[in-house]
Every structure is written in C-alpha cells, then in structure tokens.
Amino acid sequence: MPLLEINGLHATVDGKPILNGIDLVIEAGEVHAIMGPNGSGKSTLAYVLAGREGYEVTAGEIRYDGKDLLEMAADERARAGLFLAFQYPVEIPGVAGTTFLKAALNAIRGHRGESPLDAMQFLKFVREKAGALNITDDMLRRSLNVGFSGGEKKRNEALQMAVLEPKMAILDETDSGLDIDALKLVASGVNALRAPDRSLLVITHYQRLLDYIVPDYVHILADGRIVRSGDKLLAVELEEKGYGAFVGAKAA
Amino acid sequence: MARKSTPFADEALVAGAPWIDALRGDALACYREQGLPTARSEAWKFTNLRRLERIAFAPSPAKGTPVAEIPDGIAALDGAYRAVFVNGRFDAAQSRLGDLPKGVEIGSLAAVDPDLLEPYLGRIADTQVHPLAALNTAYMADGLYMKLADNAVLDAPLHLISIASAGETAQRFHPRHLVVLGENATATLVESHVGAGETFSNTVLEADLGVSAMLNHYKLQNEAPDAFHIAFSQIRLADRASYDGFVLQTGARLARNEVRVQLGDRVECRLNGAYLGRGDQHIDNTTFIDHTAPNSTSREVYKGVLDDRARGVFQGKILVRKDAQKTNGHQLNKTLLLSRGTEMDSKPELEIYADDVKCGHGATTGELEEDALFYLRARGIASAEARAMLVAAFLSDAVAEIQAEQPRAAFQAVVDQWLDATEASTR
Amino acid sequence: MAVTSETLAQVKSVTEDGYKHGFVTDIEMERTAKGLSEDTVRFISARKNEPEWLLEWRLKAYRHWLTMPEPQWAKVSFPPIDYQDSYYFAAPKSDSDKPKSLDEVDPKLLETYAKLGIPLLEQEMLAGVAVDAVFDSVSVATTYKKKLGEMGIIFCSFSEAVQEHPELVRQYLGSVVPYADNKHATLNSAVFTDGSFVYIPKGVRCPMELSTYFRINAENTGQFERTLIIADAGSYVSYLEGCTAPQRDEHQLHAAVVELIALDDAEIKYSTVQNWYPGDEEGRGGIYNFVTKRGACRGRNSKIAWTQVETGSAITWKYPSCLLIGDNSVGEFYSVAITANRQQADTGTKMIHIGRNTTSTIISKGIAAGRADQTYRGQVKIMASAEGARNFTQCDSLLIGDQCGAHTVPYIETHNPTARVEHEATTSRISDDQLFYCMQRGLSAEEAVSVIVNGFCKEVMRTLPMEFAVEAQKLIGISLEGSVG
Ligand SMILES: Nc1ncnc2c1ncn2[C@@H]1O[C@H](COP(=O)(O)OP(=O)(O)OP(=O)(O)O)[C@@H](O)[C@H]1O
Ligand SMILES: [Mg+2]
Asked: A27-66: per-residue pLDDT in tens?
C-alpha cells in the first residue's frame, strides 16, 4: 500500500481553479521532487495536502497511510505524521521556539501513545537536533520566526521536521534563502531522516538541492497538472532546457 | 444638579416650507433640551464654552453686510470658482461662479427651491448629537449650495470664502452648507474662513456623495483673534466613493471643528488635519469615522504645533460596526509643544464590533526629538535653526497628506507664514 | 430582576428563622439585617470592635455615598443595583452550611481545578469545603508570619491591623483613595469587612511573595475587601492577590479598595489573577467586580507596578492607577483581560504625573471572544509640574469571533512641554496563517489559540511572579475554551 496516493485532484482557491487533475503515488521510503514554474500550483498542492482552509477540493481523492486524508482536520493530519515545511514560515510573536516545539512534539507523541517528554528530556533532545542545523539557543528562545532572516526561518523549519520525525514530509522550497553551508546542513538533516517507512516530497526550483537530496522521482508541474515525470536526470535536463521544452508556449 | 444654559435661542424662527418649519422646531427643542454643552458632556470634556456665553453676540442682520474686498489670510487659489459669504450670507458681488460645467449647480442655499433641498437638508447631519449644530438648524438662513449631477466633473476647485465680520457689536450667525455629488461626480471644495472682530460663526456642512463619487475637501480656519468658530460637518459616502479631507486650523480665539463621516462599502476615506496654536488660542479637532459596511479604508493623521499658552484638543473616534468586516482603519495624532503653558488633550478612540479588521491608532505629545536635533547640530546647524527646520518638517509631513496639488501648496504657504511669525517672535 | 435576588434566596433558605428586624448593635448577632443604613455601618464597626475615629470615617463615607450618583461612563451595562436588597455583614459560615466533601461540589469546578493542577487540599479550601484538619497552608503561613515578624514586617488581616497597629491604619487609610472617591469605593469605605494589611519597614526587602492565599482567615474576606500596603523608605515587597482557580462567592457585588503607598526609594509590585465566577453562557449570575485600586508613589525614586490577569467576573470595572508624586518615581501597568461568552470588562489605568522625571509604562492586552465586550480605558495626565515626564502606552486587542467587541479609549492630557507621551493601539483578530501553522504542527485548534494568545500576552505574563505565571498561562487557555471553531 502506498503511503500517499493522489487521484484526479482538482482544487480551487477563491473560486479560481489551481489544481487541474493531479495523480501521484508515493510509496513508503521514496523521495519525490516536484519542480515547476512560479504559480504552477506547487504550494497549493502542499497546502491541500496539509489541509489549509480556503483550498477547496472540487474533485479527486487523497489516501494517506490507508486513510481518507481529505476527511481529516489539519491537526489530525499533522499528528498522523504529515509535515509541511512552509515556503513562508509564519511569525508568532511572544511564543518561544522551544515552547512551541514542545507543545507540538507532545501533541504528536500523545497521538502515538508515547508519554510526553519533560522539560529536561525535551531540551536535551532539541539541543542535539538544533546543533546539527547550527541553530543557536538564542534562536530557540526567541519568538517563533519573529525577526528571523529568510535562511534562519528555513533552518527552523528543518529543525521542526527533525524533532517531529514525520512519516511524510513535504518541503516547500526549503532550499530557497539558504546559503551554501546551510543548504548542506539542511540536506544532511533531511537525509538523516530518510528511512524505509518515511517518504519525502521536495518542492524546489533548483537542481542543486537534488544533488544533496537525491530523489527517486522528479515531476514537473505546470498549470496545475503533472506534465512530465522521470528520474533524477529529468531535473538535470530541466536545468539545461528550461520549462519551455516541457510545458509548451504557455509556460513562463 | 447641572445648570443648563441655552443662550442664543431668543430669536423668532423664520417661517418657510412646512417641512423646514418642523425641522427648525425640532432642532430648537433639541437645543433647549440639551443646552450649551458643558465639560460634563463626554464630547465636550476638553472644550469649555463658558467664555462664549459671556459675550453679547447679536444675530447678524438678515440683509447681510457686503464687503469691499476679500480680507487677507485665505488660501491662494488662482483660477478657482469662488462663492463668498459674509456672516453666512451669500455675497454675489464678490463671488465668481460664471461658466460652470454641465451638471454643476453652485450658489446660495437661500435661493434654492425648498422642494429640491428636502431629501438632503437636515437629513444627513445627526445634529441632535451636537447642540450647537441643532441651534444652526433652527436658525440657518443661507450658505453654499453645490450640486453635481451623476458623472459631472467640476473642472477647477470651488473656493468657499467665509468672512466673519463684526464692528462695534459682536455678531453671531449660522451658515449652512449643502454639498451633493451624484454617482461618479468629482469635485474639489476648498473652504477659507477669515474675518475681523468679535464673531461667533456656528457652521454646519452636510455632504452626500453618491456611488463612486470623489470629493477633495480642504478647509482653512484662519479667523480673527477674537473669533469663536464652531463647525460641524457630516459627510455621507456611498459605496466606492472616495473622500480626501484636510482641516488646517490656525485662527480664532476658540475653535472646534467636528467632522463625522459615514462609510459605505469599499470606500476610501482620508481625514487629515493640522493645527497651529499660539497666544491663548484653544483649538479643538473632533472626528468620528463610522464604518458601516465592509471593505473600507480610513486614514487619519492630525498633527499640531502649540506655542505660548495655546491649548489643543484632538478627539478622534473610529467605529467599526458589526458588518464592517475587512475594515482598515488607521489614526495618528502628533503634537509638538513649543513652550511652557501649552496644553494638549488627546483622545484617540477605537470602538470595534467586527473581528476581521486591521485598526490601530497612535498618539504622541512632546518636544522635538532630541536625537533629530542632535543630528542636525552635529552637522553644524545652529540650535534655533535646527528647531525651526524640524518643526517645519513635522508640519510639511502633515500638509503632504493633501492629495490635490494646488490646495496643498496654498495650505503649505499658510503654514510657512505661521512658522515665520513664530520664529520672528522667538528672536 | 434585582441583581441580588438569587443570592437572597440562597441566604434566606439558610437563615429564615434567625432573621431579626431593627437591631442596633447586638454584637452577638451573626448577620446584619438586609439593607444599608447607618445602623448597618455601626453594627459592622461595633462587631469589629473598632475605635471611634474609624466608625466616624465609615459614617462620613456612608452619608456621602447617599448623595452620589452611579458612575455612568464605563461601557458596561447591567440592571440597576438594589443596595437595600443585600446583606452587608455575615460572620463566616459555620461548617454545617458548607459542602461536606468535594463530592458535593459542582463537577465542572472540579474539572477546572484538575486542569490547573491544583492540589486536593487547596481545592477543598477554594470550594469552601468544611475541613476539620488544620490546612497545610495555614500552618505554612504561621511559620512565614513568624519569620516576617522578626524582620519587622507586618502582614495581617485588616481587622487585626486596626486592633494592633491603629496608628498606621489611621495615618494611611483613605490617604490614596479618599472616602468620597467614587460610588463603589465610598460604599466600601462605609461597609468594608476585612482585607489585608502590609507594612514593610525602612530598608527591608520582603524575602517572599506575600499572598492573600496564605493569609490566615483568608476565607470570607467578603464582598467589600480593603487592602492597605505601605512600603517605607528603601523597602521592597511583592504582593499577590487572588488565584487562578475559579472562585465562587455568594455575593454578586464586589467592591474592593486597594491602597498602596511607596515612600522614598521603595518599590511595590502588586499582581492579581482574577477569576471570579463569570456567570453562565447566557450571562446569568456572575460577579460584578467594581474595584478601586490606586497607588501613590510618594517618595523620590519610588516605584509601583500593577500586573493583572483578569479572566473572571460577569462585569469588571477596574483601573489600577498610580499617582507619581515623588521625583523620578515610576508607575507600571501590565494587564491581560479576557472576556468570553457575555462577559463585560471596562478596565485600564490612570497614570498621573506630578513629580519631575516621572515615568510610566502601560501595556494592555485585551482578548474578547463569544459575545463579550471589552474596553481599555486609560488616562495619562502630565501635570505642569512634571518636568521631563515620560509615558509609553501600548494597547492591543484581539477579537475571536464576529459577535464580540473591543474598544480603546485613552485620555492623554499633557500640560508640560518637556514631557513625552506615546500611545499606540491595535485591534485585529487571530491570524488564519498562525492558526494553520500551529495546527500543521499537530496542535488542536484550541491549543493553537491558547499558544497564540499566550504569545500575544507575553509582555504582561513575564511580569508575573513565577508561581503565578505558569498557572496563569493555563488559565488563558481554559478561559477561551469553546471560543473557537
Ligand atoms: N487566495 C488566492 N486567490 C487567488 N489566487 C491565488 C490565491 N492563492 C494562490 N493563488 C494563485 O494560485 C496560483 C498557484 O499558486 P502557488 O502558490 O501554488 O504557486 P507555486 O507553484 O507554489 O509558485 P512559486 O514557485 O512562486 O512558489 C498562482 O497563480 C497564485 O497567484
Ligand atoms: Mg510556492
């Protein structure tokens, strides 16, 4: 049974059709990359998967881990191991990064039937993961994402992923805004998560990320449809030729 | 119990069309019921009218008193249409209203067929909330009438010049202005209030903007040092209308300018102002922005400079009603106090009943920023000059809110003159 | 319906027989007759064995009260209070009237206690269960009291202070909130029954947070509580009032008065968590909390800081204020107010700058949900003498749902050009983006709201003493339960 299975997915935002029939199957342990021009619907797909309000599914179905994903509320999906690293992480003033992460982790642990971590255990656990991503204690203490640079926000998303250990992680342009060193750190963090029961959906504009996180499949999304699928070589080809060759005159 | 006082209500009411008689009668009853506002009334907490009561203002004669020439102090607007009023009465000789564009009527309210006024006059302003506005309704005699048909465009600003003039006897009068813009109509109205002697002008202006209409409305209150200026304007904005308002108050012994605006759907409303006080002046700006429908934006910036023993009052209220979702409301009041003895009372107020809104207000009062002063002085600019520069910059920022170019320049000139006089006095 | 008729019915059922008319000063009696008169005032004073001057002061207040109109300016609405339909003095309930055990207490209340993690013994105390054993807290308090006594600190009930330290009480009572201040405070002056008294001697730093919670006789301080705290030169004290657990009280009208006095270089920190019964979802029942709190920074370099977390009561009417008299004195006001269902709150502060270089800071965070209404009302007044004064005010309101209202009414009056006053306010709702982000990380909608609102209130919450802060945080979440979705 695949971990994620999307069939004939159509979705609208504010009445405007954005996704126009997406089919995608991701087996456990696989890494899929999605590339596509600006505005093609990549983030929309990610939001639909995560269950954001205002993104209306007009046709199609999504099964996740044997369940009907569309029936589940956003927080249920998260507790069931579906994680989205946001393209634009949200600032929450006054809420310390650690406070937030602890609440999230214990909510998810509770769902898995594990006991909540106490403050000491939690801090030890987080510090370890944070160290690997070069995230300082100061950043953990500060209000979540408030005043963080673009790259810091992305590293913070990677940290949350590392701590929450999701089954299905969707990374929406987690690489944009990262400097070269940070890109390597984040990639190795992601690779460390790779496991036979975990899958990744990586949205990116740059082939370079895929040098570090090597995908099993690459899909090209245009006008809300997957217009081409292939292996990692497709990304290389895309880098050379640009989208024009794949999506016809319509693409930007 | 509170002593209630009802001065200025001794004249007989003028009889006219039955509906106007009823309006006047109700208004007079309303005034007598409430009396002259006192500090006990929340809306008049900071502005005391007792001094007004001590002066024996006589009702201005019905015939009017034509003037030989327009006094100094008005906004300089070359090429504008002109409607001149002396003690509230239309002065045809001084006015320039020839060749109005198609669909535009401008003239004396007293000369208009009452049937045409009935849908508007006394129907736009909530005069019962303001006893002196009710008094105006009871005794109104004349004022500006300006009506634009649907899609009409007034091709140059209309300059309303109001002259308050008194000789031996102190004069009181109640100008009443009515502005009606049809759908999509566009106009610029500039008011200049000037005069001489001991006067009490108690003005009411009602404006009704149709769907998508646009009004630029700028007022200069530059009355004489012995004048009392009380004004109440209410502007009703239909869906998608836009309004750019600015009030510059620098004249009069005691002035209160109150503006109420009602916003429909998708309205753009800008309600800005500046106040310049010196001597023993008391200048009050009171505003009320009423968001009644969704998706509208209001912006309000009032800035003032007070010198000597002048006192400033700002009361600004934004009301967002239950249905006015997606409202954007922004309000700012800043005052610079230049000398000991000045006083500023500021009450910016938000009353909000809709949740999907972005509203905020800010208020600051104090001296010039030390940092900025230091920066200028570190560049070699002498202290007095640095101060003057910063005060000027502070006010220019306010005047810059005026969207129409010619009035902006005219108001800036008035501000510059005031600043020159301040500087001269400090030397 | 008269506001107290429900209360009356309850009380009546208990006291039907013992009710007497036309008493004067029968000190054996447990209860005054219903209603308010000079006799009521005399009865209370006699019952407490008060000196003549205090009785006179109460009577002056009472006579003045008769002439005063109800305050009308606050944005709250409720039926007129029938002051004659109420009892003004009742000795503590005897054990036979109380619930015998927690089994007899409203399960909803217990549920909340559990969520707040309140220990069983304290639950019993809060729920007013009759317990034979001496409370731990009482014995703890006795131990502390001894230690405090050694340092010269006086911390006792107001009644005790009247007996033991009459000269201090006489010197300071009514010196910050005069008996004629406002209708509610004047009523309190006439009929207050008990409260707390604190005196910190010169140069002493009180080594622990003083809390009404640990006060002996903490029970039944009643609806007209009176608190007086004096910090002598160079001293410091932090005082905690209330607790996070929902408190029930049979009296609907509460009109407390708190007076603080800080002398040269002294500092008083006063923290409140107010969680009186707010009434049911339709707004029935619930406490009217009409409180007058004021501190006088009399000395140079003195400081008074108010922190409040207000989540309870049907109606809150409260403006903890500072009179900044001493040069360089500092006033602070940090407030979180949460109103849900049909609660109404009109709260804020007054900062009156009189001395030179006085500074004040106001941080107010208001959250309205359900069909609640909330108003921040604050006055900053800079007198002509307040050379170099500074004020900074930040008021933020958060709306949850489209049936509630949030209002901001500041009064800023500046009479001195060297002063600098800054005020900022915003009103908005919880952002959908923030909610979704939290939920994407596994938090339920309610948890998400709680996290976001706690963040919104952070600046205020961090001024609370540690032992309060954690509970107060949970309280914020609990107060908003059912407001989302
Ligand atoms: N609320 C909205 N109302 C109308 N259109 C919207 C809304 N949100 C998104 N869209 C449109 O949907 C389309 C897809 O947006 P989406 O964010 O999914 O693109 P993307 O592929 O992630 O692009 P990028 O590479 O720039 O991140 C865009 O044209 C965008 O403008
Ligand atoms: Mg995107």
From this structure: 999 999 999 999 999 999 999 999 999 999 999 999 999 9
Q: Say how far apart CA B108 and CA A100 lie, in whole Å.
A: 68
Tens of pLDDT, residues B293-328: 999 999 999 999 999 999 999 999 999 999 999 999
Which of A13, A9, A34, A5 lies closest to A21 in space, CA to CA?
A9
Neighbours of C10 (CB within 10 A): 12
Look at phi and psi of residue C456 and say left if phi exceeds 0, alpha if psi is from -120 to 50, else beta.
alpha
Q: How far is the CA of A215 from the centre of ligand 2 (A)?
A: 19
| Contact in structure between B274 and B399 (CB atoms under 8 Å) | yes
Q: Atom 16 of ligand 1 has which residue's CA nearest to it?
A: A41
Among A48, A75, A101, which would you mutate to test the C interface (most chain C Cβ atoms within 10 Å of its Cβ)?
Answer: A75
Separation between Cα atoms, residue C319 and residue C289, nearest integer Å: 11
Residue to mutate (ligand 1; options A13, A20, A174, A223; most atoms within 8 A of CB): A13
Q: Name chain B contacts of C401, Cβ cutoff 8 Å.
A: 355
DSSP string computed for C265-297? T-EEEEEEEE-B----TT--S--EEEEEEEEEE
**Torsion over CA of C187, C283, C87 and C72, rounded to 10 degrees?**
20
| Alpha-carbon span A238 to A205, nearest angstrom | 10
pLDDT digits (tens, 9 = 90+) for C145-169: 778 899 999 988 898 999 999 999 9
> What is the distance in angstroms between the Cα of B13 and the nearest Cα belonging to chain C?
36
> How far does chain A reach from its first CA to its final CA, in angstroms?
37
Q: Using alpha carbons, list the distances in angstroms from residue A104 to A97, A157, B16, C216, C438.
A: 11, 13, 75, 42, 8
Ligand 1 atom, smallest distance to A46 CA: 18
Chain A residues within 8 A of C437 when measuring between CB atoms: 86, 89-90, 92
Asked if C250 and C281 count as a contact pair (C-beta separation under 8 A), the reply is no
What count of residues does chain B have? 427
The answer to whether C447 contacts A107, with C-beta atoms less than 8 Å apart, is: yes
DSSP run (H or E) holding C479? helix C466-479
CA C199 from centroid of its chain's CA atoms: 19
pTM score, whole prediction: 0.88
Q: Do chains C and B touch (3 or more CB pairs under 8 A)?
A: yes
Assess contact for C197 and C226: CB atoms under 8 A.
no
Residue C167 Cα to chain centre, angstroms: 26
**Surface-to-core class of residue B193, CB atoms within 10 Å of its CB (0-12 exposed, 13-18 middle, 19+ buried):** buried
For the domain made up of A4-251, the CATH class stated in words is alpha beta
Phi and psi angles of residue B171, each rounded to the nearest 5 degrees, phi first: -115, 145
Residue B178's SS3 state is: strand
DSSP A49-115: HHT-TTEEEEEEEEEETTEEGGGS-HHHHHHTTEEEE-SSPPPEEEEEHHHHHHHHHHHHHHHHTPP
pLDDT at B255 over 80: yes
Question: Which residues, 6+ apart, have CB-to-CB distance to B60 below 8 Å?
Answer: B87, B88, B89, B171, B172, B173
Q: How far apart are CA A163 and CA A159, in angstroms?
A: 6
| Pocket lining for ligand 1, CB < 6 angstroms | A 13-14, 16, 18, 36, 38-44, 87
**Cα angle value C138/C141/C142 (rounded, 5°):** 90
